[in-house]
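Residues and backbone
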Amino acid sequence: MRLTLRTLLALRNKTLAPDDETTLTEKVRESSYAQQLLDLIANVVANAKLSALAPTATGPTDDANVMAEYIDSTLPPEQAAEVDRTCLESPIHLAEAAGSHEVLTLVLGKPADVPAPLRDRIYGLSSYTAETLDSPLPAAAAGGDGQAAQGGPQTAVPPVSLSDSGAFQAASRLQPTQISASNTVHPAAAGSTEPAIAGSRQLNAAEASEIFGDRLRTSRVVPWLVTLALVGVLAFVLKQAFEPLLHPTPTELTQNDPAAVDPAAADPQPAEPGPAEPEPAEPAPAEVVPPAATEPPAADPAAEVEASPPPPVPMPSEPAAVEPTPEPATTDSDVAAGTPPAMTDEPEVRVADASATTDDPGSNAVGTPDRAAAEPSAALARTASSNGLLLGLPGGADAQWVSLPNESPVAADTTLISPPKFRNQVTVTDRYELTLVGPAMAHLAAAGSEAELHVQLGRVLITALAADTQLTVRYGQRVATVDLPEVGTTLAIDVSAFRTPGTDPTIAENRVLVTRALAVVGPVFWQLEGAAAEEIQTGQQWSQIGDGSPEKVTLETLPPWIDGGVESAIDKTARKTLLTLVPIGDSVALPLREATHFRRAEVAALAARTLVMLGHNDVYFGTDGVLNNPDQKSYWEDHVAALKARIDLSPTAAKDLLADARSMDAANADALFRLLWDYSPEQLETGDDAFLVETLDSPQTALRVLAIEALRRVTGTSLFFKPEQESASRRKSDIKKWETKLRRGDIRWQTIPIAGATE
């Protein structure tokens, strides 16, 4: 027999069979938790100050019928488990279950003490119909023999069992009866409309009001619906009332614009003010005529005379006498102008600058065209038109990570990051295309007139757009020259860092770089610096671990990341949602931080993993950190993998992560950082396995998360431990499983990680 709350109640009230009672008593002696639960049941039943459930309670276990079926063992197993959980958490529910079970046991365990006159009256009811229940008994019926009416000696009531207490099946066992003209009692017909069971008749309004009083009420939804309707009507009325203020007409905008009232009076010297009024008008009276109704004084000849003599005018510049210059001038005026009158006037003023450009041809009043013309010369690559989220960090001390727009130039000395779940394309000098498969990080540097690709982390696809394409690829301290002989030749490069479990990531010697080059469409020629070129055929993979000797193998199937594989609906939704939260062409640090608190956990997880690639590790630590957020429990394994990849990137990255952890959680930073190292087999044998099990009971959620993830990597299982559980008493049962494995010495690596092992 299983030890459950219902069996404990039956054991407490002595309603079990002798064999079951003996078995269950032995189990209770072996379980301290069961003994504590029995004490708790006794306390809540004896507690007179404990209140009852509220009449308005609407929980799934607050229904009296649910509790009745639970006590009678007729509740479905899934609902019974929910009632068990509720009773263990709520003393009120536990008292209700225990008290009801005790009362039913007392009532059903011995015959009821019924007075003899009442018993005789009830037995005499068989001679009457339901309509005469309230009539006084005749003398003959009242003087009948009570002993004869009892129908023989009473039988003892059997004890209550677990399967059927009998208390809740009384209604189904009673059969309505009818009395015939000969006073013979027999069962009622199926079509009878007046059953003789008390309480079966529907109460009318007067009777219900007398019984229930003012406890009957209408639905609570109706007032809310009425309130919402009134609020909607009020909002519509307010919108209609303030519509003229929210959307003024163009005439009102012109009247309220101070610049359009008297431009000549506002600017007595049109040659000087560059920011407000670009230049005085050109001596072309024909072009001044169209806006005459708006600004007639702007074409004053006196102003034109003043505009041509003075050479030191700052705004007239390089547009010189070249014919195309009015176009960028018009574009700048369109951007600067905010109202229709200003848009009409500024192009005419810009035309007048053509005469003044001869005085200072070296100056440049319009900076945007020159900057746009300079970008192609400095750009090494260009982003594709179908990218998702490609992040770039230009060279410079004060540079910030920005999201690169589609079809935009990428300057030299730019670091590119493709976040997890994203694939982004970059075309380099129209000769080859790079596809960064997230998470990936690469750097574009200029080597003379050519581009040099530095793959720092992750996976990159290189596809030739021209025949005989050659490029330089750097990974770690090594440099390779790649030849792509034909258009469409594709090479896949995968660079990852490996560190032996238990070694310090801040020491460079503990880190080994694993590089793989796979010819997706070959042949590809790969030549390391100072070595001979190697030909890689289609399906062949060239690999090198650290400074070891390269080796070449043939793969039967291509890795799934080459073509993207199958993307889940959750990942697709997370990508699309994050794109709407991050502005294109602007800094991404602050929007990504805000996205870590998004209502959907998968979006917040993707934003946090992107931030750690940018070096913003502090979002993972502290009270509001990702490792302390129970909403992220489904993605903690991915978060820990992202943190481990960050500390393995370089010793500097590992030190930065430790500094961020100390700034957010100084008390636990060193322990958190140590848990990310993992543990070697020797360290586990010397006591670190006990430290991991002990950390599972830490009051800090972040420590529990990193400890269980370390145990998962070592043993391959979590034993269903829930690090988000804040109650120490509820964690104990799961921790006992790990303590058992600790005593047996089973917390050991199932497969010791080695460099170059496939995932």
